[in-house]
Amino acid sequence: MLLLKKIFDFYLNASIHVAVATAALVQMTFYFCRLPFDATVTAFVFFGTVFSYNFIKYASFVAKQKTFSPSLKSIIVLSILSLIITVYCFFCLELKTQLVSILFGILCVLYVIPVTKSKTNLRNFAGIKIYIVSLCWAGVTTLIPIINANLPIEIDVIYKFLQRFLLTLILILIFEINDLKYDDARLRTVPQTIGVTKTKLFIYCLLIPFFFLEFLKVNYYPNQWIINLILVITITFFTYFASSKRSKYYTLFWVESVPIFWLLLIMSFRF
């Protein structure tokens, strides 16, 4: 059991689970846009997520330490391998996809590296963190697959982008509720600013446009409203029980699994 727990913790701490979640959203883009599976785009997003998340989480810590635990060494090795694969996949993408990817990459770098003389990065600007992450998730999982397939950015794509943006924003807010006792007060997260109860109400409000955006799409899938309703109920459940007293697994595994659950629902209703 101890070995299984170590493997599971590594799976979460090495950002593999969140990478599976982003890859799941990419597969949804392929499905809804009637695109064939693209291994290069999938690998680019998956390994790019592993590297970028680990870079954000561990870069400053690694820079200050001289010795590392075996687990952290494994994460560093995985991150380097992920970077190599990401770079290789990057050069296999279309030129315009590369340019869009660079924009999101710059946001990722600025998220960690100081942009002011006071050594403040975008992550530390009060209230901006959740929008940066939401923008990157929505852009990478929606725009990159479509642009690389040379499809036009039509109104349905914009609705998909907005849905992904709202979903990511909602999940981050649940994370912020769970991490309330750990977050630096200077970050001024939403729960720190307006409280847990109002943050949950805000999430419930965001779920409304997330659900109804589906009905605005031109290429509407008949079963999609059922799928999205199940998803909304699931997120409502996670929101209601979110608390700073919950373990890290509540968000790192269960809440982060929402995009994967969404894909599984879509695959189930295909038949």
TrEMBL record:
UniProt keywords, alphabetically: Membrane, Transmembrane, Transmembrane helix
The name this protein goes by in its record: Prenyltransferase
UniProt key word Chloroplast: no
Domain of life of the organism encoding this protein: Bacteria
Keyword Membrane applies: yes
Species: Paenimyroides marinum
Sequence intervals crossing the membrane: 12-32, 44-63, 75-93, 99-116, 128-149, 161-180, 201-219, 225-242, 249-269
